[in-house]
Model the fold of this input.
Amino acid sequence: MGDDRSSSSSIQLHVRNQCLLSKGRELPLRPKTFEVLQLLLRRPGQLVTKAELLEGVWANRFVGDAVLKASIRELRRALGDDPKVPRFIETVHRRGYRLVGQILVIEPAKSDLSFRRVAGKGPELPDEAEAFRPVLEALEGLWEGESEWWKEEESSGGKER
Done:
């Protein structure tokens, strides 16, 4: 069959709707399993320890490795991933897990408009638009309220001082 990593980009995680999709079909996940995936997506390609996952998802609850293993097994089943030849989730023996495949994350912006990004990177852009990334990131900052210039203008009634 060969390496099928290119098909991994067809997986989408919709943050607002709390769902995972593959080729437009919803992949059912329990809420805690969805949270495990979100934690892994925050650090793609990096080890996330069992302790970090347990604390991040089951904080203030006494649970063991078994619940984490069950969630990882559920994720692998939903993603069609094989732990022996991982395309998405790699086990780091006795330590934790690493997200190795790409999952497209669909997040709501504060303006209620959605933007797309590949986990761990900025918005997904066509190659020819890559030169405009700094402008788009600056505009994204404006939408997220990182700039206060417009509030100052409103408070002065738009008049020069």
